[in-house]
User: Fold this.
Amino acid sequence: MLRRLDKRNHLIFMFRGKIKVGITLSGGGARGIAHIGVLQALEEAEIYPDVICGTSAGAILGVLYAYGYSPEEMLDIAERSNMRRVFKLVLPIRGLTNQTYLLRQLQKYIPENDFNVLQKEFHIGVTNLNAGKHEVWNAGKSLHDLVLASSAVPGIFQPVKIDGAYYVDGGVMNNMPANPIRHKCDFLIASNVVTKVEKSAEELNGLKSILARVFEISLWYRSRLNYDSCDTVIEPAGLNNFHIFNFSKTKEIYELGYLGAKAKLLKVKNELEAICAMS
Assistant:
């Protein structure tokens, strides 16, 4: 039986609530599972983000965390065979497909379709197709629809209609928004699961590999737009060994996120302690 953490568990930690910590979670398909490892490492260091912003896979995992699920529970959810379908993107045979299964899972794990039920402040990055702009939502009774929209990859999933406008994956314009929550945090952490690596000419020897490379570079660029707004950026090494649809490697991807965050913990804790001393 999964349980939600009580808010009181987060009120006492090493920085005594003096510092408001934020985290922004990028999109990245299966690689997004690394965010769970990042959150696990932070909590082991008694660092509990108060404000979360998520896009695409980051929105799915971010809303679970904001609702009160622990990283351990989130990993358990991700490892369940039926839950892998929440993240799995299957090319439709006939046109665009909807996200009925993801909606059912959201309703199962977060029954209330309302931001007010979340235990932590949560922001979702989406792309407004009608207005042609990036938006970040953090209130209202369209929580499920916004998570669906944020993960609605164009060309695979149907746009989601909210308040008369159509929305798709927030990563289309900004894959890791940080500016919208910068003013709400004393310290802002970025967890980016999309990193750039060089490719040899032999690796780019066909249309499929070229198109995949273009998509990868574009997503990487859109993940770095707000780097300057973050106090620290966690980019787990080794994630490029996993395809964005590689959902069968949940534990391995989680471990990379965990190790990536552990490598940054000393720097993060020193900076938090410095901020705490000045407050």
